[in-house]
Amino acid sequence: LATGPRQNNTIFYEIRTYDIKPAKMKEFLEMVNKYIHFRTAHSELVGFWYSELGAMNKVFHIWKYDNFAHRTAVRHALANDKDWQGKFISAVLPLIEKQNNEVAYLVPWCQLGKPPKEGGVYEWVTFQMKPGGPAMWGEAFQAAINAHINTGYTRLIGVFHTEYGLLNTVHVLWWNESPDHRAAGRHSAHEDARVVAAVRNSVRLLESQQNVLLIPLQCSPLK
């Protein structure tokens, strides 16, 4: 079950996560930085990161589509792009152990943001919520997110909820100046009564959560 409001347009985001063979991560990242322009010629890349903490040898990338017809056209064009297939896909497939993708929408109260400057780190937090969708947990979840925003230690980039993939999953992307800046901010947030109250109210609707510290690639628009 997944019910509740979403953005008032057809735009969605494809979230792709790849597990890379441990000995091949450096080679994979070099190939992405070198050849990603063949891929971005077809559709918009939001960001491309590799994991530093919370997961090993994993990359995350997010692609924006106007609608499902747009994605279908892009996938068709990519399949017939000789440069993309010959120079990148054929070379990197042996480096990848596993692939996963999800389709997600921005929650209706969130617009995709940008960091105030380059050079920081990103935190990707995945919340598995109880069944029912945003109609069930959306208001309490928004209050918890806003409570963290109001502390001022972190910058919200986006809040996505799944349409295809594991339902009732919410991914939250944050930006911080550094891991130490994030750690200090979290410590302060844990002692903030506003945050504690909001989290207490939302956690009753939560099944599990996981976070990953991400480093943007050179080619990533968000970096």
TrEMBL record:
Domain NIPSNAP: 13-111, 122-221
Record-linked InterPro entries: Dimeric_a/b-barrel, NIPSNAP, NipSnap_domain
A single cellular component GO annotation: mitochondrion
GO biological process: mitophagy
Domain of life: Eukaryota
UniProt cross-references to Pfam families, sorted A to Z: NIPSNAP
Family: Belongs to the NipSnap family.
Record's protein name: NPS3A protein
Organism, scientific name: Elachura formosa (spotted wren-babbler)
Gene: Nipsnap3a
